[in-house]
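Job type: complex structure
Entries:
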Amino acid sequence: MNAIESIKYITPELILLVFSLSILICGLFIRKNNVLGVFSLVGVIFAALSLYQSSATSLPIFSNLLLNDPFAKFFKEIFLLITSVVILISMGYKAFGEEDRGEYYFLLLIVTIAMMLVVSSNNLLMIYVAFELVSLTSYILVGFLKRDALSSEGALKYFLFGALSTGIMLYGISFIYGLFGTTDLSVISVALTAGGTNNFIALISLILILAGMAFKCALVPFHMWVPDAYQGAPTPITAFISVGPKAVGFAILLRVFLKNFFPLFNGWVDLVTWVSILTMTVGNITALTQTNIKRMLGYSSIAQAGYILIGFVAGTALGIKAALFYLLVYTLMNLGAFGCVVLISNSIKSDLLEDYAGLYKRDPPAAFMLAVFLLSLSGIPPLAGFLGKFFVFAAAIEAKFILIAVVGVINSIIALYYYVRVIKYMYLEEPKADSIEPKSLALQAALIIMLAGVLVVGLCPYPFFNWIAASSNF
Amino acid sequence: MPFSILSCIIFLPLLGALLVLATPKKNIGLIKTIATLSTAAALLFSLPLMFKFSLFSPVMQFQEKLPWIPQINVWYHLGVDGISIGLVFLTALLGFLACVASYGINTRQKEYFFFYLLLTTGMLGTFMALDLFLFYVFWEIVLVPMYFLIGIWGGPRKEYAAIKFFLYTLAGSVFMLLGILALYFTSAPHTFNMLELAAGNRPLALSFQIPVFIAFYLGFAVKVPIFPFHTWLPDAHVEAPTPISVLLAGILLKMGAYGFFRISFPILKEAAYYFALPFAVMGLINIVYGAFVAMTQTDFKKMVAYSSVSHMGFVILGLASMTMTGFNGALLQMLSHGLISGAMFLLVGVLYDRAHTRNLDEFGGLGVKMPVYAGILAVFTFASLGLPGLSGFVSEFLSLLGAYPVFKIITIISTLGIIITASYFLYMLQRVLLGSLNEKWAAITDINKRELCTLIPLMLLVIAIGVYPLIALKYQAVSINALIQKLVPRQISF
């Protein structure tokens, strides 16, 4: 399908583009944070409505550069959810200077467009270009607190690691081009199935591409940037990069590795199994000793990525569904947890765990919500996080990957300790001070939506499971 | 839609918990009333359950079955049979009595009763769930409120005890989760239904059963607790507030043993045979080791806690025998120990509330100052050490009787455990009630009416079962018979 005919399939992206550019201009005149926030939220809602009405036809569009399939639509819906929640959290975040807001929301919408493009890409070069757009905008967003040394340091580390790993990825793509004479994934897939290619080189280039994805998903050993970037970034952006770019990475892993390059499954599965094991273990063990909640949640999100990888390693239909389901619940609970961190840091002006002491008395709703999100992250039923873990472990057992399932459950025991440690500070200790500032309505709304999500998905998962079953064919 | 009595029993406490959440923090009287009424309602609903229960049918009764997650064949499936009905009643009873005993809690009452009621719902659900997924959910729901109840309202080392309890039990149960998944994927069509799995339409290879049995064993053994996974128990018991110790000893330990009855043995039959001997040895270690450790304790509560380890050993031994008598003894021991240890912890609490110490060496001569208390303590002590005429004797005797033909030497050594038990319990009685009165306790008051109300029902049941065991055995006999038939017993006795 040519470019003109294809335009109608990217209406949501275009709506976001229009809104983002208008926000950039409006930001010059309007200084009020909430106005710009609401404006961008309206943009996201319009995009979501247009996406909701569109039908995913699995048609190749823009000369097979993009695919309009249910898999991409699922991720686009997740991204719009993430962005709207991050906008709400940002509206309640008090550490920004007023003058930056227009630029901030502009970048947030641009990165959303970029993410939506990556997940629908059907061409390695398109993936690379859109991927870089996600990365570059995220670097700027992480360093958005220009006068804050930690923010700049985090952004620099993020950038250096990102540049290195995307460089490696591009190198891998160049091998693929050399091997197949094209970067079009459908063509490559057909050639691979037909056989006759040098699988060894193809495998090596796949592993190089894996490096680029591993950076986005923060998999060991490409996770070094996480703690500093998470701690330094403005907390709404921390929330954003812990779910958004991570989902992008997983979308590409699933699409490229399990669809287009599936004939090579046996070649890379052992490597990815060990990446998953290391990611869970390193993330969890390092999280045990953290004293700053943003760093702790950073390491926890590394470990969570390891669990998602279990579904990926299983490689079965159930494995793919499990990974998607886990991504959905992970998005809900991690956004919720970071939202609570913003809410709490607004009133106690600290991200240190010891300052969370006695929060049950100072701010009961915030303490309660954070406790629920943390228990969900540690996989306690009947919260959504449990079902996420349940399905990935189920996928591993079904595919007879017993080792990774056992490592996974041992890790969830380790993880319980540090999640519950936060709860211990909040509920088992007495407060040192008891000042409370008025709370932002937008932020509370975001948190209540996430809380409802965690409870509803946990107690009544079947509609979500249907949605995921319909989205997992690509 | 027919009246769902089991759901009512499970969710009445949860409804109470939500009402408590909606009550203002300051209105403590109303919070206590809601909590008491909702646990009392659960107990009241469990009475018609006992009366209407058909004693002659081994099938699941009062079944409720609704689809929950149809895509993976998960059902909201409840039911009771002779194995679980006694435990459901015990849970409802202790849930109500411990709630009355909780009136003494004097900080953060709203949160306390919220967690308390949530815990009750989890415990009741565990004993009624017939779907492995549902079972696991209820099983895990118990952990979170327990963590808070020990961690907030506990003693000096409460934080350590609470997290230790949480980590130990979660560690066990996640392996159980893997076991559940393994069973699910080997069944055809895939199912979590315990009854279908136990029916065994597809024989499972022993090489498959053994690792799955071990996975379930880890989950259940931590809860029972079986040596060497018992170390969380003394810590949790000593630090937990009295009513929570009651539920911990009375109900939570039974959840583990119930798991063996409901899941491990019926579904993994060959593995159960395979592991019978090691199982009996674990029972022996629990009985003797627990008793010896209890003997050295100077903390009253810790002594009772270790006596629980010892008494649960009889359950394990009875199970290991795979005989009808042994199974009957094991199940009766669960009920009997639930009643006795619940009462023992209440009695320790009565003393601690007055003396603010649990050090056995500091008491002495209290029999004079607290005659009623002394009498009740003596009754439960005798029940614990297995005096004929009280429930502990019947159940321990049946366990040993069932085990003897199968494991002679182990049973003989286990019987010695009873002597050790008698010695430390009598030594305790001597140090607390007899001797000259320690002047510190000159002003101590006797047990009050509320405390008496919580103890009398337990005492009546202990005596009733002791004198006429059939009132409990008649509920379980048919179901146990059906279970043993499926297990192909080594010999018929009883």
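Summary: Residues 109 and 315 of chain B are 36 Å apart (CA to CA). The two ends of chain B are 42 Å apart (CA to CA).
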